[in-house]
Structures are given as C-alpha cells and as structure tokens.
Amino acid sequence: MNEPILELDGLSKVYPGGLKALDNVDLTIRKGEIFALLGPNGAGKTTLIGAVCGLVRPTSGTIRAFGHDMASDWRKARARIGLVPQELSTDMFEPVQRAVAYSRGLFGLAPDPARIEEILRSLSLWDKRDTRIMALSGGMKRRVLIAKALAHEPDLLFLDEPTAGVDVELRKGMWAIIDQMRDRGVTVILTTHYIEEAEEMADRVGIIRKGQIIMVDEKDAMMARLGRTEAHIALAQPMAELPPALAGYPIEIEEGGTSLCYRGGDGTGRGKEEVADVTKALIASGIDYTGIDIRESSLEDIFVSLLGEEQAA
C-alpha cells in the first residue's frame, strides 16, 4: 500500500451556535490515489477541505500532511497542497497568464514561464493567456482555477466540485486532466455531486453525512459489496408459477407471466453468477426464453440507498 500523504485524526469543527460541521473524522489518504468524497449539501465536505487548506480552524483533532503537523508546521505542508475552490473568487480583471504566474509567486517559487505555459497548454488555455478572466466562459474560468492551483506544483490537490456548472464535454475534458495529474504522481481529492464523476475517476470513495464519515472503501469493492444485480428475462411462453428449480432464487414472475425478474446479489457481488445459474435452471426445466436484460447497481444507487431519502448533492 502506498504511504499516507494526509492523515486526519478525530477532526471536529463546531461553529458558533452549535452547528457541528465535522464530527470526529478519521481519514487517511494514500499517495498517488484519486479519492472522491461524496455527501449531501451541508454534509461537511467543504469544511473538511477548508480545514486541511488552512481556511477553517478545527475545534479539535489533528491533521498531518506529508508528515507535518498542520497546527505547528503549517507553512511547509501548505506549500505542497493545491486547492481548486468551488466559488470563482479570482481577480476577474487579470489576464490569464499573469494570474496563474502570480499564484506561483505566492508560494515563494521562482518565476518559470515554461512551466506556466505547459500548465496553460494542458488545460487548453494557452490561446487565452492574454484574455482577462472576466471575458472567459464559465468552463474556462474553472480551468483557470485549476491552472492557479497547479502553478506551484502541489503534491496534493483538492478539487471542490471541479465541474459544477460546466457541460458534459467540458466535464469529460476535466476527467482527462485529472487523469494526467495522477500520471504525474499528484494525489487528488475531489468532492462532486456528479456521482458518475466519482465512478469514472476515483480509486477510493468516502461518504460523509452530517459531519461524519460513514464509509470509506475501494470503489470497486464498495460496488461489489453493496451493489445488487437486476435481470429481466423475457419468456418465450407465459408462466403461471415458478418451477421448483428456481425456488431458491430471488425471482418474481412479472408482466402477466411473460417475464421473470431477478433482484439479488446484495452484499455478495455474485449477482451475475446467480443469473447465469438461473438461465441454466430454466434450460434444464425445458423453459425457453428470448432475451435477458441485466443491470448492475451504479455508485449512485449505492449512495442514495446509504443516505436513505436524502438527495445526492
């Protein structure tokens, strides 16, 4: 397993008035991974990022980044962390190239025009380098935020809703950029309300609710463990009752006997295997079928079921 790059231990944040935004959070992030933090609005995602980036002072708990305690050795650790915030708060009157170069200087790094050009080209911003930020589209402005965050060559990058408000094509472009970051060894933590984004990009997923981390797991393991399989089998001839060979399977007769519906695999990851066993049992029982439609749970299905009636955000 890769070494930990960020360790949160008992992290809590209580705001004046009693709002508990973070509640005893323990979390370890590994070097080189893409970690997606999912949760409804108000769950504590942005507060957690703010605490690590020095924008929010925790009430209790510890944060260690790159082996440094963020409370006592904040400056050394913060210089290796990049943040792409949710809100566009950059200087709208600055040209793109100057704004990105300025961000590099904020961290005490020497000017490096070649590196700034490389970053702008990778984000398709080089042609806009002399354009004022205010004149850019929403998607381009968000790319400028990413460029500013990359300017000081961070080892750990936070992306807080990086594709909010951009269209599908730009989102896919962002995914490609995040992939390139991982290839360069950057560790990426992203929050998103596009759960397909986490499903596409993340190595591990954490789910936060009411300031508490309720689950952290490898994405594929989470989907295998908590997912379910649904299969609709179209029958060649209507069926009045299930044959004995299917008695042990989670199957129901539907659509007036013309279809069988299997819903199973919960917590086992064996749904597809059981569907294959069902089809063999049908054939052995002399029952013909004309088609099978199989659907696996998405990460969104799992997320919604874990949070009950709360909506993904």
From TrEMBL:
CDD domains: ABC_DR_subfamily_A (cd03230). One of its GO terms (molecular function) is ATP binding. The keyword Transport applies. Keywords: ATP-binding, Nucleotide-binding, Transport. InterPro entries: AAA+_ATPase (IPR003593), ABC_transporter-like_ATP-bd (IPR003439), ABC_transporter-like_CS (IPR017871), ABC_transporter_ATP-binding (IPR050763), P-loop_NTPase (IPR027417). Residues 6-235 form the ABC transporter domain. This is ABC transporter ATP-binding protein. It comes from Qipengyuania aurantiaca.
